[in-house]
Amino acid sequence: MASFIIKRTANVKNDVLSGITVALALVPEAVAFAFVAGVDPLVGLYAAFMIGLITAVFGGRPGMISGATGALAVVMVSLVAEGNAMGAESENLGLYYLFATVILMGIIQMLAGVFKLGKFVRLIPHPVMMGFVNGLAIVIFLSQLGMFKEVVNNEVVWMQGPRLWIMIALVALTMGIMYGLPKLNKKLPEALIAILVVSAIVIFGGLEAATVGSFIRDGGGEGLKGGLPIFQADIFTKVPMTWETLKFIGPYALILAAIGLIESLMTLNLIDELTETRGNTNRECLAQGGANIVTGLFGGMGGCAMIGQSIINIKAGGRTRLSGIVAALGLLFFILFASGLIEQVPIAALVGVMFMVVIGTFAWSSFRIVNKIPRSDLFVLVLVSGLTVIFDLAVAVIAGVIISALVFAWENAKRIRARKRFKTDGTKVYEIWGPLFFGSVKAFNEKFDVKQDPDKVEIDFIESRVSDHSALEAIFNLVEKYEAVGKKITLKHLSEDCKVLLYKASPKFKDVIEEAIDDPRYHLAENPEAFPKPLSEYKF
């Protein structure tokens, strides 16, 4: 018991310090994404607090950070705009439609957890994963470039002159501290130290630099100061619970749920690799869904796992649920009590932290393996990276998985072969090798010459694997063709699953299939539980 307690508390200091660092990094991200979605900064901050806290406590991946994200914010823009158009300007209906959509999004995500759909993240190929990581690193980098802009005469323009050079110098200093500090002392949280040092230089040096406070005011916000999240009872009065409302928010909720789960589960996989541990995907689906339901009810914009903040947390030593809890509670503390101090933090320090996250996130090894992996995998990697930047994560990952699956099916379809030989009694033997499935059925059928073959034909599947219903149908049709011209056909070395299904299709297969002690044992993908008992116990 003592060793268990020691193990659980050994990382407390790292978890607390990394949590504080993440809380600081969450502020401008949440505010920026709120502006992207067209809502008040506090809507983004409340979402980051509530989602971060709930997923930290109940999620399937200790150490992973969740909050308001840009991937979801870009989808919410049109939702809020269309919602506002449905009522008077003073009603701000778009915000309430957003809350209702986030609640429905959470319900969909919880259903994904209940039905254990999280396991399908295992179907995502490695090139898709690398493309996702590279694309997301590019998206994070591009999002930070917006911090190099300022408002002049009510117009957003690129910084120029001294302000630009001060910004660049502070960003470079932050990155330099984060790069060099671990070489001197690995126990100090480099991101937090960098933020504190750069903040002190700006505050005590009187430098003219953009801060979190000026960033919020330039975006039209009033500041970070706020109270505790309040239950939004107006959702149920301002948003009519009708079929028309469901048709409006339903598609948005599905897209948001898909993007949120894909980003969360892929981030979970990435953190698994970094920490050499394993998270629970279905539990994460339930936690993300529950968090979004609560967030929608209490005035948040919804969210999911944040790869940038998660990597900051892991790199800073955060490993347990405590780091995520500290980050969420720290963010709430800033909102309630320390808004004035946080507003003085220079944007440059936070941009520098995020640039280091970009460098750590990007899979630089993808350049080294360009000439070492199949062209199809390289194409998928580049495609997913590009689609992540141009569209969103859901589109990129779905496209990558589909293309990878098609390439896999095409390659395997070409591997079906048939060796032909004759026995002493004149029987022609076809020895099949390679996978027999929907993609290879056409090539399989082309191997046989029904009219020219002798009266006795034997097909041996010892080096083949019958994979699906299309393959069974091809075998059934082939037997029919040989019998139609009066020729005897024998099938050998089929799995017992195949035999059961063929016997059910037609009793005549009892005379066609030859039983052997060395018959292969495997389950069909189409019928994973087709053989729960010995074949002899079936009645056909």
UniProtKB/TrEMBL annotation:
Keyword Protein transport in annotation: no
Topological type in the membrane: Multi-pass membrane protein
Pfam families in the record: STAS (PF01740), Sulfate_transp (PF00916)
Localization annotation: Membrane
Source organism superkingdom: Bacteria
Repeat is among the record's keywords: no
GO CC annotations on file: membrane
Name this protein carries in UniProt: Sulfate permease
Keywords: Membrane, Transmembrane, Transmembrane helix
